[in-house]
Design a protein that fits this description.
two-stranded antiparallel ribbon, 2 strands, 6 helices, disordered N terminus
């Protein structure tokens, strides 16, 4: 499993590495251009090469934004991802919305994810079906001192009134075991 995890992250690391290498190359080429006699055909040809490398760098930055940083930024902001972005996120090892793990056989992971994107008067948030509510106290009544960053909330922390009609129907018909965990009146 550790080897698989390493492999799934290699492509995103390579995109970041590519951008860093292009920055270094551009710096070296600009230094060389400044120190060399830039007159004549050779100087012009060298500046054309520098411009081409800069265009490659801009393209690599767009790829990095679209495939890596942009998806992470949307995820942290609780914005709904497109299906392509969702699958890229899963390829990086981040899938809290596995329909199989949630015990829902008749939907895709993306369908489950779409129904777990919730917006109410407080803002947007993600429902994580496998998440358990945070524990407030230890068995002896003492408060826990564990700090944990959570991407989403458990079903127990979601009011039925937070769900759209379509989300309520989805959970009630396709995942009643999750639907029963929501707070609120079911009538």
């Amino acid at each position: 499993m550790a080897n698989q995890e390493k492999v799934t992250h290699d492509w995103s690391d390579e995109i970041l590495r590519l951008n860093n290498l292009l920055d270094e190359l551009i710096d070296h080429m600009e230094t060389f251009d400044d120190e060399a006699d830039g007159n004549g055909a050779a100087g012009h040809a060298f500046r054309v090469v520098i411009d081409s490398v800069r265009r490659i760098k801009r393209s690599a930055q767009k790829v990095q934004e679209n495939l890596v940083t942009g998806i992470g930024r949307k995820l942290v902001a609780h914005q709904q991802l497109t299906e392509e972005e969702f699958h890229l996120m899963c390829a990086r090892g981040c899938n809290y919305w596995s329909a199989k793990d949630a015990g829902i056989a008749s939907v895709t992971d993306y369908e489950l994810y779409q129904n777990c994107c919730i917006e109410n008067e407080s803002g947007r948030f993600y429902l994580i079906p496998g998440e358990m509510p945070p524990e407030e106290e230890d068995g002896d009544g003492a408060s826990r001192r564990t700090v944990r960053i959570r991407l989403g909330v458990s079903p127990e922390e979601v009011r039925l009134s937070d769900l759209t009609v379509l989300q309520r129907i989805f959970f009630e018909t396709r995942a009643p075991h999750i639907y029963e965990r929501f707070m609120g009146d079911r009538s």
